[in-house]
Structure formats: structure tokens, C-alpha cells
Design a protein that fits this description.
The protein is mainly α. It has helices at about 1-5, 10-30, 35-55, 60-65.
Length: about 80
Amino acid sequence: MRAYTLVGRNVTLAVLSLAVAIGGLTVSAALFPRLQGLLLTVMALGFFVVAMMLLPRLRLNAVLPLPSSPGPDAPVPAPA
């Protein structure tokens, strides 16, 4: 209930649905060992699809700042 009040209904339901899906795939892999490869492949593809959908929303400047151009008072490199 605390997570619901902190992040909101949509995020809580998204995390809960992903947890239920992963738990269901895990139980399916435990009950049907011959399907483990297929289930792992489905989970990996699902992970990459979600990652590719969310990657454009990531603010790369906050995580990995780009080097700024040198200002007018920056030192000039010596000729080689």
C-alpha cells in the first residue's frame, strides 16, 4: 500500500502486472521443463521490447553528460 501512495496507481499496476507475468513464466518453466528454452526466449524478447520502448524517454544528459565545447578562455593546445 505504501508503494501505491508513493508512485501512483499506474506505476503500481504496471509493476504488479510484470511481476505476475514473470512469476507465471517461472512457474510454467518449473512445471514444464521442456518449455524452458521457449519461455526464456519469450522473456528475453519481452525485456528487450520494453527496453526499446522506454529508451527514447530516458534523459541521457542526466545519466551521461556530454562534454561541452571549450569556452573562449580555454587553454589552446600546443602545436605538435
